[in-house]
Design brief:
The chain is an alpha/beta fold. The protein has one domain: P-loop containing nucleotide triphosphate hydrolases (Rossmann fold), CATH 3.40.50.300. About 40% of the residues lie in helices and about 20% in strands. Helix 1 packs across helix 2 and helix 5 packs across helix 6. The longest helix has 22 residues, at about 185-205.
Amino acid sequence: MNTNTLEQDVNLVCALIETRAQAGIRSIIGIAGPPASGKSTLAEAVVQQLNQESDSPVPRATLLPMDGYHLDNRILEARGLLPRKGAPETFDAYGFCAAVKLLAVTRREIYLPEFDRQLDLAIANSIVIHPETPVIVVEGNYLLLKTEPWSSLLDVFMATVFVSPSIESLRERLQQRWIDHGHDPQAAMLRATENDLVNAELILRDSGKADLTLTQT
């Protein structure tokens, strides 16, 4: 396991992508990890670096976050799942996996949803995938779970990355995340413990081995 800065991790992931890339084949890269692990920041930085290194008018890389496949709050509320938002059962998992598989075999422009955190809902057709973009970086909590439908993505990913801080570090980050959302420290820890950490423990326990495992400082 590597313990690096964000810049070092980005370089490691980009090097992995370069070694796995095949001419004429779109590279689908999976970056997974628990909530507050830093996977989203890493994925965004990887896409940014890949595009900065390219002088083509076509984006070399595009980011697809799994969060765009959150079920709507009204559906979650009707099912009693709103307090568990972020758990595996609160996503359109089959729809998400189908979209990732489509990206691997389709060479036409594709439009995909993106989650708006301020509005707390998914916005349809917000992400545009250019037909000639060779690298798609997919990020999300459950990409490496050993259960269906998530496990079916292993045949699609050309390379996989898992961001895995310690559970103690995750606890601190998750509490701070809820404090930043306006909760007092006690309420923030309760929110983190009752949902986020439950999901984090599931991910750490039941995810398969990635090609590259990282722990950001």
